[in-house]
Structures are given as C-alpha cells and as structure tokens.
Design goal:
The chain is of the alpha+beta class. The chain contains 4 helices and 5 strands. It has a 5-stranded mixed beta sheet.
C-alpha cells in the first residue's frame, strides 16, 4: 500500500466465502398510462366520406378483393374495416401512400404513428376506419374476414337468432 506520509490507513477486514446480501428486489413496474387518447367518434356521413375516398384510392391502385366491413358495436377501436390485397410489397407500399394522400384530400391528416408496416401487411388507423393491406398469403393466414365478417361469431352477450 502506498500512503502519504502521516496519513492514517485503516485496514478493511477480509471475509472469505461470505457472499454479499442480494440487492433488494425492485417493485414491479406499474403499467404506463396510455398517452394516446382516442378522439371522439366520427360522424356517420364523415365516416362514409372517408370510406369512399379509401375505396376509390384502392380501386385506382388495382387492389384485389377489396372488402369493407361494418364493425359498429362489435369493435371498440373502429366502426369500419377495409381489407384489400396487393400482389407485391411495392404495390402495397404505393397503395398505402396513395391512401394517405386520398384521406388528406378529404381533410384527414394522419399522424406518422397511424401507419404500421411490415413487408407483408400495412395497417392504417384513420380514426374510426382501419385499413389493412395484405399480400395474399398473409391475408389468408390472418383471416380477418372470418374474425370480423358477416359470418363471424357474434360478440359476447348477443345470442344469434335461429332460423
């Protein structure tokens, strides 16, 4: 040990084989409050205007199997779903870009986080309208038509009428 002349040095006792006590466990993290507050519902005529603009844009881009589903009362995040198919990712990306432009023309500016994309699927959250753009195999895999279409199971608490 090198110590300055006249400095007092205190020896620290060594304890071999004794492990230090574990650090106290952190309390579980509380869920973060949601920062995304959903705006109020869109008026029905405004919603139909958005659906028409989106459908026209998809038709212009040669989307296949365009399906518009009314999920009012069945889904709490939207009143309409549009599902469409593009054959390659470049077509799907172009459809998404043109959809954003078409919705902007009718007065709906989407936030950057309203568009989620992967190579096989693009999701656009346009308030009460949610648009899914799929490659054919991904659309078949997820089967949103089976989940939300007219032949889908009834929501909890609603008994389907028997013929």
């Amino acid at each position: 040990m090198n110590a300055a002349p006249g400095a007092r040095v205190t020896a620290v006792p060594r304890t071999r084989g004794v492990k230090a006590a574990p650090a106290p466990a952190k309390p579980p993290a509380l869920p973060r409050p949601s920062r995304k507050i959903r705006p109020p519902k869109v008026a029905p005529d405004r919603l139909e205007q958005l659906v028409a603009a989106a459908a026209k844009s998809l038709e212009d881009d040669k989307a296949e199997d365009i399906l518009i589903l009314d999920v009012t009362g069945r889904a709490d995040y939207a009143d309409r779903l549009i599902i469409a198919t593009g054959l390659v990712d470049r077509q799907i990306q172009a459809m998404a870009t043109h959809l954003v432009e078409a919705l902007d023309k009718v007065g709906l500016r989407l936030r950057r986080d309203a568009i989620q994309a992967s190579p096989d699927w693009v999701l656009i959250d346009a308030l009460d309208l949610v648009i899914h753009l799929f490659k054919p195999e991904t659309r078949a895999l997820y089967g949103l038509e089976r989940m939300w279409g007219p032949d889908s199971p009834a929501p909890d608490g609603i008994t389907p009428s028997l013929p």
